[in-house]
Amino acid sequence: MISRITGFLAAIAMAATLAVSPAHAQDQKPADAASAAVVDAAAAPAAAASKPAENPYSLTNILAHGNIVDQFVLVLLGIMSMGSWYILVVRLWDTSKLASEAKEVRATFFKKPSLADGVRALKEESAFRYIATTAIEASEHHEGALTENIDHSSWVTMNVDRAVADVNSKISAGLGFLATVGSTAPFIGLFGTVWGILNALTAIGLAGQASIDKVAGPVGAALIMTAIGLFVAVPAVLGYNWLVNRNKSVMSQVRSFAGDLHGVLMGNRSVAKR
User: Where's it found, cell-wise (predicted)?
Assistant: First the structure.
């Protein structure tokens, strides 16, 4: 009897297990799907945070998507900046080379046995050779109905001064461009800023929204133009003043050489007359 009751209870337990198992499996599937959805929802902000959002007001976006005035201002400032740096580098090289030549000439030129030997010792493209050649030619070719009305010393002085002026013009070339860039670049950048703010305020007025996110971005992007204008102007002004001072120092040595050369030529002529 007891065994029959035990078998009956076991059958009931088995039937109950079979009835509950499918329902439990069905309930577990939605639970798993819900937990997976929660994990995905939590991972989405992390993925979005790991990828930086593109700044619509960056300089790159202004170049790519800005209006024609913004792009023109940026291109113009870029050309002015490249031109300024090119002139700075080239003129720095020219004045450095001229200062080195002046030091060498002062040490060796007037120790040569003759002016011809001194000229031959100078480099072909040297400014000092150009001045010396001009002075010697003017001293040796002082003839003609018109030039004979000018005394020999004045004639040589005039030609030497012209040669020195040519050298000065060469090493001063481009300084006017630097001065122009230094004085106009801030105003060009300011024009770009004013234009950008005007467009931003117009767009805000048309949209009817004046929240901080609608104002700060466009106005901040417009201020980039002023910053670029200053970035272009400051090196140009500093470079201009620096090159002017270097040119004065170098040209002082060139004029000293020209004066000594004039004295040597006049001394040779006085000796020849005796």
Answer: Cell inner membrane; Membrane
